[in-house]
Amino acid sequence: MKVTVYSTPTCPYCKLAKAFLDEKRIPYTDVDVTQDKKLVEEMINKSGQMGVPVIDVDGTIIVGFDRKKLEKTLGRA
């Protein structure tokens, strides 16, 4: 399973999402979209959204920290 979290350092919901993944011991790649405009474009292309967090679980996109949807998606992966 490949999990990517598109985030910013100041986003409280990004911190909650990453803490949730840490708690569940699910490895993920944290992509700080403030560091590279290309990463922002990649996130927008995947999600259609400019807000963070955007979480990509094996191609399933979750916008925002939606605990129930994230648990359900991780359970299928």
UniProtKB/TrEMBL annotation:
One Gene Ontology biological process: cell redox homeostasis
Alphabetical list of Gene3D superfamilies matching this protein: Glutaredoxin
Gene Ontology MF annotations: electron transfer activity
Database matches in InterPro entries: GLR_AS, GlrX_YruB, Glutaredoxin, Grx-like_ET, Thioredoxin-like_sf
Domain of life per record: Bacteria
Glutaredoxin domain: residues covered: 3-62
Protein name: NrdH-redoxin
